[in-house]
């Protein structure tokens, strides 16, 4: 089936990214993996390449486009090479939509030029040690000072991707108690400068997968946040968070599909080169059937991911459709990557092989951005169940 989601501009971008990965990432990726993070200066290179500015208005140094298709190409190309771009994904996919949607003109002038170049890297701090999917249960507080010039931020966050290298973090905090009829009321968003006094980075978390993306615990002790760094209106943070969940879940869905596609490629290469009993592993019927079944699943996931991408670009991707795409693509990737690792035999368990890293990287897709169980609940609700 001919794929129609990408045009010549996207394919030209693909060639540029593929060459960049081969030159700048593949030769040093083992060092990043061992260090548990990409180096901070790598993000400057991504800024120079223009990756951070694709969806930023031209007046702030960006390309002025309004599409997720270039991000989709990035997912495919990084997966194809078996690499990750550190924690930079949250900078564009998670943080930028909030800046574009909520920032005042003054804030955009302050934030976006440095965002585009990578001079200021952004992250999103929502999850807390005691609250995962229950965002409304957060305990971090931001109290407005008596003179109204700043908020005083206290609390802690965990699982913050990009948290080690971030220069600004969008922090979700309670500015007032929940109302009697709405426990989600009273949450606000702040663009917090990580150099602020009282702001500290705790452990860089030791994850099973996504080893090159820095994920951290954050703590706030009487951090003074200027009032002009409030994003949007006070008390409406929960609803802002919900507004961007569809794009986040599409990103996870598309990334999972891209990983599954890459896994088939890795497995096909391996079984073609690997000889057992005097014959290539690819010559055995079981190998052919396993790869054929995996390819069929990848084809289906590609169709779902592409359809969700078109709907997202058109502004028509509903929460239930995003949940469905995430559920389907992440479950497909789980099955496909597991079967492709099996075809590698013992070598599939070695981290020097990309399939092993892919196996570990993929596991979180069914957890973050809302677990598979949460996705099922959203879909069921949309069905009237």
UniProtKB/TrEMBL annotation:
Positions of the Acyl-CoA dehydrogenase/oxidase C-terminal domain: 235-383
Residue ranges annotated for the Acyl-CoA dehydrogenase/oxidase N-terminal domain, each copy included: 7-119
Cofactors that this protein relies on: FAD
Keyword NAD among UniProt keywords: no
GO molecular function, one term: acyl-CoA dehydrogenase activity
Pathways per UniProt: Amino-acid degradation; L-valine degradation
Domain Acyl-CoA oxidase/dehydrogenase middle: 123-223
Any Gene Ontology biological process: fatty acid beta-oxidation using acyl-CoA dehydrogenase
Family under the similarity heading: Belongs to the acyl-CoA dehydrogenase family.
Protein name: Acyl-CoA dehydrogenase
Organism: Streptomyces vietnamensis
């Amino acid at each position: 089936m001919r794929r129609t989601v990408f045009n010549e501009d996207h394919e030209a971008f693909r060639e540029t990214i593929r060459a960049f990965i081969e030159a700048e990432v593949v030769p040093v990726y083992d060092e990043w993996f061992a260090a548990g993070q990409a180096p901070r200066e790598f993000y400057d290179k991504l800024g120079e390449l223009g990756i951070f500015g694709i969806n930023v208005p031209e007046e702030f140094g960006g390309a002025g486009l309004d599409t997720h298709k270039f991000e989709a190409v990035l997912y495919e190309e990084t997966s194809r090479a078996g690499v990750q771009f550190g924690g930079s994904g949250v900078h564009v996919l998670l943080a930028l939509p909030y800046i574009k949607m909520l920032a005042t003109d003054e804030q955009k002038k302050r934030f976006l030029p440095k965002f585009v170049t990578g001079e200021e890297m952004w992250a999103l701090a929502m999850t807390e040690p005691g609250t995962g999917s229950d965002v409304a249960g957060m305990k971090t507080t931001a109290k407005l000072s008596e003179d109204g010039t700043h908020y005083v931020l206290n609390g802690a966050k965990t699982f913050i991707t990009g948290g080690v290298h971030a220069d600004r973090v969008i922090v979700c905090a309670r500015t007032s108690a929940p109302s009697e009829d709405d426990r989600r009321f009273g949450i606000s968003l702040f663009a917090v400068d990580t150099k602020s006094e009282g702001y500290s980075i705790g452990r860089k978390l030791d994850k099973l997968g996504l080893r090159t993306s820095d994920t951290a615990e954050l703590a706030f002790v009487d951090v003074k946040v200027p009032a002009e760094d409030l994003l949007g209106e006070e008390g409406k943070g929960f609803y802002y968070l919900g507004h961007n969940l569809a794009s986040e879940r599409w990103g996870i869905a598309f990334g999972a599909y891209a990983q599954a596609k890459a896994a088939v490629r890795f497995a096909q290469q391996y079984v073609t080169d690997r000889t057992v009993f005097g014959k290539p592993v690819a010559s055995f019927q079981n190998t052919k059937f396993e790869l054929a079944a995996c390819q069929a699943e990848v084809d289906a996931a590609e169709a779902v991911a592409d359809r969700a991408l078109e709907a997202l670009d058109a502004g028509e991707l509903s929460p239930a459709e995003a949940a469905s795409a995430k559920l389907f693509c992440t479950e497909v990737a789980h099955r496909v990557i597991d079967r492709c690792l099996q075809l590698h035999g013992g070598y599939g368990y070695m981290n020097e092989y990309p399939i092993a890293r892919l196996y570990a990287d993929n596991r979180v897709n069914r957890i973050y951005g809302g677990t598979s169980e949460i996705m099922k609940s959203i879909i069921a609700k949309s069905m009237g169940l």
